[in-house]
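Structure Section — protein described below
Tokens — whole-number codes for backbone shape
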Amino acid sequence: MRPMSEPTTAKHRKFLVVADGTPESEVAIHFASLRALHTDGVVTLLAVIPPADSAGQWLGVQNLMREEARAEAESVLHKLAAHVNDYAGIKPELVIRDGLLSEELHKFISEDKDIAILVLAAGTGKEGPGPLVSTIGGKGFPIPVTVVPGDLTEEAIRALA
């Protein structure tokens, strides 16, 4: 955990969004993109590839599955990056990590001192706000976390950001 007293400059302040392909993550991306635009910041999109279930699989099959997952993550991130660029005129940073989401998120934040805010959107279904929002809400977190409602309209996002 890094101390909150470590300064981040407004010019390099990064808004981190977990790009998991959910409709809520798109709301978070829109909000983060506009906040970054209004504060001369940067958007960082993070995709985390979960570990493969290795039970009964040959190493060659595991490697192929990992390569396919990475290719899919790269494709999704590049589409989202083009969307952020069209939406807010910002070229986001793209990051892919392998591992468990919560662990990789914490590691990445501790490694990149310019990440100032994690932006999440809460789920809108009956299941609750979503596993990541629930996990972060239950523990301390090393940086501020902005949780926006996952069903915000475009007008509301623009008004808030």
